[in-house]
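User: Please fill in residues for this 395-position structure.
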């Protein structure tokens, strides 16, 4: 008998939600690697295509392994429904294409992921959708940016890479009073540390590539929210086709089983590393919401279960000094991905945020001396020693 999962704790949902056993009664989730599904009759084919009969049709828009992933993430986020996509970027594109039209306006935070800024700044205007970027931390700036045609608030909290926190309830109250939708990119926290839908947000997007996978294996994304919105996202997905593969969905299902323990352990490591970095003389500033020195520490404590596993820090000496730290690391991986059990290190100004203009970088606070670490599961002492090698060479 299928259980109603609503009453279980997140740890249980992460392991169990969404699984529907086949007639073979497999214990692990089955991977349905098939592009299409066979019908019993012409009438059934017609009914499935028209939507009169529920069931699988074609893996661009229906696949049981993908459905299991969607159900698990929807339950974890506390959303009515979830639509999986090929990547985090296609989740954001699908959300905008489904809910915005030519002439609509978006208010977004300046600290968004680089490719998201690129999409909002250069791709969407070609389709008549304009975006105003405002400071993540200043609700008055969001209010001032609202126009009659504003359709959507889009934010990412904590932001990448400076870990700025948006006051979700304040922005939700503002948006609701003006009939504006709010979408949060919840990639950094995952539902284990932060559940934006519980705070009144309309839609959550994910780069599943990050913590949901957790081991840097596959690319995927998702949009979670109320059916009234996700059905529009589904229509876009069915027509435009940026779908998640069954193989990637299966990997993500396996990843999500350990999501709660990874988030707890990696956050604890990040806090320890951030506290150590604060004591290093070559480090001019550490950005981590779990530090009492973070300007929004109180807000982070209210909104998130912990500071998360991403931190940034700046070193005196700009790009040469930052690159010296990177080039002397032997353990951390020099790669832009994050959310992995293996710690990753990146220089945002020349990688993730290299395609936006220097002015956009300045507005987002991405300086040349800034480094971002996505803390993994290694022993913190080994990470400290890895950084100390390069830091000690900074004069
Ligand atoms: C916060 C955030 N959102 C979205 C994305 C895009 O996700 P993907 O690479 O899966 O398209 C990323 C990727 O790094 C990200 O860090």
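Assistant: Residues filled in for all 395 positions:
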């Amino acid at each position: 008998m299928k259980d109603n999962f609503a009453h279980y704790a997140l740890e249980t949902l992460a392991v169990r939600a969404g699984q529907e056993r086949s007639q073979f009664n497999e214990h692990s989730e089955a991977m349905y690697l098939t592009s299409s599904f066979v019908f019993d009759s012409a009438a059934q084919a017609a009914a499935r295509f028209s939507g009169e009969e529920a069931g699988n049709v074609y893996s661009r828009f229906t696949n049981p392994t993908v459905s299991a992933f969607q159900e698990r993430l929807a339950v974890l986020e506390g959303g009515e429904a979830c639509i999986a996509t090929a990547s985090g970027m296609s989740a954001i594109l699908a959300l905008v294409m489904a809910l915005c039209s030519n002439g609509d306006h978006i208010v977004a935070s300046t600290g968004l992921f680089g490719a998201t800024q690129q999409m909002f700044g250069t791709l969407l205007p070609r389709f008549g959708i304009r975006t105003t970027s405002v400071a993540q931390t200043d609700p008055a700036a969001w209010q001032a940016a609202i126009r009659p045609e504003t359709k959507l608030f889009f934010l990412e909290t904590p932001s990448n890479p400076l870990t700025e926190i948006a006051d979700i309830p304040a922005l939700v109250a503002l948006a609701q009073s003006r009939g504006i939708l709010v979408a949060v990119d919840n990639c950094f926290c995952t539902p284990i540390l932060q559940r934006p839908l519980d705070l009144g947000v309309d839609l959550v997007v994910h780069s599943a590539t990050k913590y949901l996978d957790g081991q840097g294996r596959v690319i995927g994304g998702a949009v979670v929210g109320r059916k009234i919105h996700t059905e529009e996202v589904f229509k876009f997905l069915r027509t435009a086709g940026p779908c998640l593969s069954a193989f990637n969905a299966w990997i993500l299902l396996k990843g999500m089983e350990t999501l709660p323990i990874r988030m707890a352990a990696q956050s604890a490591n990040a806090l320890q590393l951030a506290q150590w970095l604060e004591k290093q003389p070559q480090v001019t500033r550490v950005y981590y919401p779990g530090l009492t020195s973070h300007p929004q520490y109180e807000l982070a404590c209210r909104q998130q279960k912990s500071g998360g596993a991403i931190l940034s820090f700046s070193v005196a000496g700009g790009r040469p000094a930052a690159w010296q730290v990177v080039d002397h690391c032997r353990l951390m991986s020099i790669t832009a991905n994050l959310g992995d059990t293996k710690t990753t290190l990146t220089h945002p100004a020349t990688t993730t945020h290299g395609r936006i203009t220097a002015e956009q970088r300045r507005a987002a606070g991405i300086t040349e001396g800034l480094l971002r670490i996505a803390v993994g599961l290694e022993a913190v002492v080994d990470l400290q020693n890895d950084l100390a090698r390069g830091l000690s060479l900074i004069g």
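For context: The two ends are 66 Å apart (CA to CA).
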